[in-house]
Amino acid sequence: DALITAGFTKVINIEGGTIACEAAGLPVIRGRKSISLERQVRISAGALVVMGVLIALFTEGYGIQMAGLFLAGFIGAGLVFAGITDTCGMAMIIAKMPWNQSRPSKTSCRAKGLLVAFLVGTVGPLLAATHTKDSLTDIQHKIMNQSAILIDVREPKEWSSGHLALAQSLPLSELRTTTDNKLNDRLPDNKIIYCHCLSGGRCLEASRILTSYGYDARALQPSYSELIDAGFTQATRK
Predict the structure, then answer these.
(1) Residue 82 CB partners (closer than 8 Å, separation 6+)
(2) Domains present along the chain, CATH in parentheses
(3) Helix 202-212 / helix 62-85 crossing angle, nearest 10 deg
(4) Which contacts of 33-41 are long-range, i.e. CB under 8 A and separated by 24 or more positions?
(5) 66, 84, 155, 187 — which has fewest CB within 10 A?
(6) If you ran DSSP here, which 8-state letter would residue 99 be given?
(7) pLDDT digit of tens for each residue in the chain (238 aa)?
């Protein structure tokens, strides 16, 4: 109808469209088959849940592990909500992505940018946690000069199997449930508090907790064995 309105007179409408042409034996050239929006949602949701579980299982640090569990739980809850309300926010976002547009629009590009910015803004800070830049030699000097202390945030069983002579034991599990008032009797507020653990992961969370209470807490990246190799004396077992 639009072609006739535009002035074209020889217009033939083939009933049945492409399917009828194929059935009649006419050559039909098809482009690359696209993935349906429903399949894209399934793939995206499944990938995010798997990623959340992997983060929770194979990363160190309570905060990062909880972020992984939250991601998996959030996607699961979103799918339940979508099933109940027949409204899927993920499908709305994916539908606006450039690869789902016949011609990429400014809106779709903006949606993609917002999605990337959201992921960078939420996941980035968790993955970008850093350890102290202080050298191990400098740390040892500060501890010997009593301007800093060293705490071991491993669990009691790990502590009893071997620990550094200069370290004090303050397990991360205890630190998570201890209030600021109780820490005042155990930790000085006028000294640097260096935190170490088995492999440099748990001490990051410990330093964040102590920093939130106002302490100058710094996490050590070297593992327990690397600290011993660097000259930190191991306590003699009794």
Answers:
(1) 88, 89, 90, 91
(2) 37-127 (no CATH), 136-229 (3.40.250.10)
(3) 90
(4) 34/100, 37/91, 37/94, 37/95, 37/100, 38/91, 40/94, 40/100, 41/88, 41/90, 41/91, 41/94
(5) 84
(6) G
(7) 666 666 767 777 767 677 777 777 777 776 666 677 778 888 888 888 888 888 888 776 677 878 888 888 888 888 888 778 777 778 778 777 776 665 555 554 555 555 555 555 545 544 445 789 999 999 999 999 999 999 999 999 999 999 999 999 999 999 988 877 788 888 998 999 999 999 888 998 899 889 988 899 999 999 999 999 999 999 987 6
Q: How many Å is the Cα radius of gyration of the chain?
A: 29
Q: CA nearest 112: which of 103, 102, 124, 104?
A: 104
Q: How many CB atoms lie within 10 A of CB 195?
A: 30
Quote the DSSP letter at residue 45. H
Cβ-count burial of 26 within 10 angstroms (0-12 exposed, 13-18 middle, 19+ buried)?
exposed
Q: What is the DSSP letter of 200?
A: S
**Lateral strand order in the sheet of 167-169:** 167-169, 148-152, 192-196, 216-219
> Two tokens at 28?
């039909």
Structure tokens at 202: 């748990």
**Torsion sign, CA atoms 94, 98, 99, 101:** positive
Q: How long is the chain?
A: 238
Look up residue 220 and give its two tokens.
């050590």
Q: Model pTM? A: 0.50
Q: What stretch of H or E contains 115?
A: helix 106-127
